[in-house]
């Protein structure tokens, strides 16, 4: 029995290392890989009233936010954090801020929710991005 007590911390350490290694492998295989070269993408903005703006662009940018910055008639504002990047709260002067009006800008890639925020979303040729004003049905909380 004493022998198992001495092996227990060693086995626990080995298990922790194995789990961390597995998580690192999964992250490496699933992280966004930016495409190098010229890409043609489309960006739509769907506002609260159902109105839309449509943009088509050719870009060398690797991430969505960098591509959006090159569109002359598009203004995007928000709060930036190191962990999440830009959290969009306003597009072309139209606000959707969960803390103040209980709504947010959903970011869709080919009609599916993007896996990453605008700062980390790698773009690929031919993709279609939509910024959709999305009400939640209530006011957000203050933090």
What can you see in these coordinates?
Helices cover 27% and strands 34% of the residues. By secondary structure, it is of the alpha+beta class. The chain starts with a helix and ends in an 8-residue tail after the last strand. The protein folds into 2 domains: 1-31; 39-135, Beta Complex (Ferric Hydroxamate Uptake Protein, Chain A, domain 1). The longest helix is centred in the N-terminal third of the chain and has 29 residues, at 2-30. It comes from Clostridium boliviensis. Residues 65-134 form the Transcobalamin-like C-terminal domain.
List keywords for this structure.
143 residues; alpha+beta; Ferric Hydroxamate Uptake Protein, Chain A, domain 1; 2 domains; five-stranded mixed sheet; three-stranded antiparallel sheet; 8 strands; 27% helix; 34% strand
What is the total domain count? Answer: 2
Mean pLDDT: 86
Strand content: 25-35%
State the major sheet: 5 strands, mixed
How are strands sequenced across the largest beta sheet? 2-1-8-6-7
At the first level of CATH, the class of the largest domain is: Mainly Beta
- CATH third-level topology of the largest domain: Ferric Hydroxamate Uptake Protein, Chain A, domain 1
CATH architecture of the largest domain: Beta Complex
Q: Over all CA atoms, what is the radius of gyration?
A: 21 Å
What shape does the CA trace take? extended
- The secondary-structure class comes to alpha+beta
Would you identify the regions where 5 or more consecutive residues have pLDDT less than 50?
none
How many DSSP H or I helices?
3
Number of strands: 8
Order of H and E elements: HEEHEEEHEEE
**End-to-end distance:** 52 Å
> Considering DSSP H and I runs of 4 or more, what fraction of the residues is helical?
25-40%
């Amino acid at each position: 029995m004493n022998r198992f007590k001495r092996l227990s911390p060693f086995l626990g350490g080995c298990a922790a290392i194995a789990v961390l290694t597995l998580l690192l492998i999964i992250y490496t295989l699933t992280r966004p890989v930016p495409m190098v070269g010229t890409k043609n993408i489309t960006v739509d903005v769907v506002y609260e009233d159902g109105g839309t703006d449509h943009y088509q662009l050719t870009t060398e940018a690797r991430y969505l936010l960098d591509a959006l910055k090159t569109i002359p008639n598009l203004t995007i504002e928000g709060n930036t954090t190191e962990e999440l990047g830009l959290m969009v709260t306003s597009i072309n002067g139209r606000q959707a801020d969960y803390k103040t009006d209980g709504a947010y800008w959903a970011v869709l890639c080919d009609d599916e929710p993007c896996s990453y925020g605008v700062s980390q979303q790698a773009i690929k040729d031919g993709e279609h991005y939509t910024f959709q004003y999305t009400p939640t049905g209530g006011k957000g909380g203050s933090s």
